[in-house]
Amino acid sequence: MNDLTQLLAKNRAWAAEMTSTDPDFFQRLAHQQNPEYLWIGCSDSRVPATQLVGLLPGEMFVHRNVANVVVHTDLNCLSVLHYAVAVLRVRHIIVCGHYGCGGVQAALQNDRVGLIDNWLRHVQDVRNDHATLLAACSTTAERLRLLCALNVLDQVKHVCETTAVQDAWERGQILTVHGLIYDIADGLLSDLGMSISNTPSLHEQYFQALARLGK
Ligand code: CO
Question: What is the per-residue pLDDT across 107-125, written as a single tens digit (0 to 9) for each?
Fold first, then answer.
């Protein structure tokens, strides 16, 4: 018996259900995708991007990695960004963090796990850049929640600084970059108040969002 028997059966049931409500659904999607959103989120199994915003296949382009980090030299993330912006012409990029992120927690506590420590070094940079804000938290739980949110703000900034986004804005393409955070305890998303549509508004919105988190 194949260990994936159950998954394959669930897949057949899902495909049949989709086709029963919309007989041409898969044939239409096979010809092209036309998503309006790019989602950059954490790989955590409890944060299923498309599902938690109620979107269907074809409606959201997705990139996920541990702790939703956007690194200026990460070819994987940059390629996704470039394709989504220049070819698919998405209108919105969502950077979504989540409370209770294991990657952020490991970065906060200097945990030694292995190879991934090098990746999480980027989250430690976020931690170090906002050391004063984090030191003002009275509990460890509060500090972790704050770092999860701060990490989103910094990654939104990184997205805005990529050539893919800079070039899009320069050619007049309508594109907004947002920062959201998801609570795995209640399934709800919150907007962190950064919605950037051009370079001049980036720094002002970044500092305003930071100030809100610091309250
Ligand atoms: Co996570």
Answer: 999 999 999 999 999 999 9
